Amino acid sequence: MDEHRRKIITNEIKYWKQNRLLPEHYCNFLLNLYSEGSSEAPSTLGKRPSRMKALVSFILVGLLSLSVFLFYFTELSIFLQTALITFFGISTLSLALYLLKKSFFDLIPLLASALLLLITSVQAVEIILPNHPASLYIVTALNCLLWLAAGIKWTMVSFKLSGIIGLIVLVIAIFV
Question: 79-83 — which CB contacts under 8 Å span 24+ positions?
Fold first, then answer.
């Protein structure tokens, strides 16, 4: 294959990889195939996470732990707890979606958003319907189904497993 054609093909594969039109490992394989193993294809094995990603992940985990602390270990008013947890939920979800859109895809922002959504929805159901355990089961099942759908959509095994295991534990908790 002549050099001009090889350059066009590798540029197209790099475009696919950058815009996530194919999974990254397929693009890496194709780049290695067409560049014949030369160093033209970037390797993702030795990369360290950037400081920005590490800082955002640390902030998101901090917000998650702060929200758990506010719910279960303080005597704040219901309205203040709800306002703070809503702020934390919106900020973590928006950061996770921003990072997802900018191809900084990392598991920690999504995991923090999912757990914060679970905590918020469970706490809201406990406040709104305190003597209705069926509503708590429904909200928990919806969260697990959301995790399962996210795992299927973004092909993330951790979310698929979390959704399936959560549903199994919920069924066992209901019937046992």
Answer: 81/123, 82/124, 82/127
Same-domain status, 24 and 56:
no
**pLDDT tens column, 115-167:** 888 888 888 888 888 889 899 999 999 999 999 998 898 888 888 999 999 99
Task: Give the integer Cα–Cα distance in Å for 109 and 96.
Answer: 5
The verdict on 34 and 94 lying in the same domain is no
Query: What pTM was estimated for this model as a whole?
Result: 0.55
CA distance 39 to 107: 28
Same domain? For 43 and 55 the reply is: no
By residue range, what is the domain housing residue 2?
1-47
Dist CA 131 CA 25 (whole Å)? 50
Checking if the pLDDT of 93 tops 70, the result is yes
User: Which amino acid does the sequence have at 127?
Assistant: I
Query: Who contacts 110 (Cβ-Cβ below 8 Å, separation ≥6)?
Result: 96, 100, 150, 156, 159
Nearest-angstrom CA–CA distance, 167 and 145: 8
Of these ranges, 18-27, 33-42, 125-134, the one predicted with the greatest mean pLDDT is 125-134
